[in-house]
Amino acid sequence: MPEHDPETLRPSGMTRRQFIKSVIAAGVVTCSGALFSGPAGAAPAGPPGAVERLITLDVNGQQRRVDVLPHETLAQTLRYKLGLTSVKIGCDRAECGSCTVLVDDVPRYSCSTLTHSVRGAKILTVEGLTRPDGGLHPLQQGVLDAQGFQCGYCAPGFLMATLGFLKTNPDPTRAELAHGVSGNLCRCQDYDKILTALQNGAASMRKA
Length: 208
Known about the structure:
By secondary structure, the protein is of the alpha+beta class. It has helices spanning 6-9, 16-36, 74-81, 138-146, 155-166, 174-180, 191-207; strands at residues 54-59, 62-67, 100-103, 106-109, 122-124. A hairpin with a 2-residue loop joins strand 3 (100-103) and strand 4 (106-109).
């Protein structure tokens, strides 16, 4: 492709400096038109179907403002933008339950829940279970006393699934509790000890 000589593009009678200034000025006008078109102070209109990115979420009883992409999952928002690292992204395909949180008291896999879909809902993670004095929630304390988990990676998901289940059945049998948390998997596979610990935590809640 032949190279263009800038001198051949400059109108006759215009100096090189004047030509460069005119090109820069034209660019500024073009950008200004895109940035400041419409009523004064009005934000530029987004494409049809666009969603608002800066939203407010009710997380652990606090109003949190966060910039959320349209395709962003609740797990990504909670863990990477709000710093709630109890939310574990294990399988990232709604199979293991490590990312379980409560949305309006109902256990949800946050890895398969779009953040924009829970605007206006009350979201609860393990961090939100801490009492005002810094003490553990009765469910947490009961599980800790029974030493129910080994590596602990799946523990937050089990705790939130159990808490959600206990809201509908506060005094379950072992079989009922096992069914209630059956959507959560443990990589250490010590389910018998986990169920014992969760039952102990449920008992602590009833006594609290």
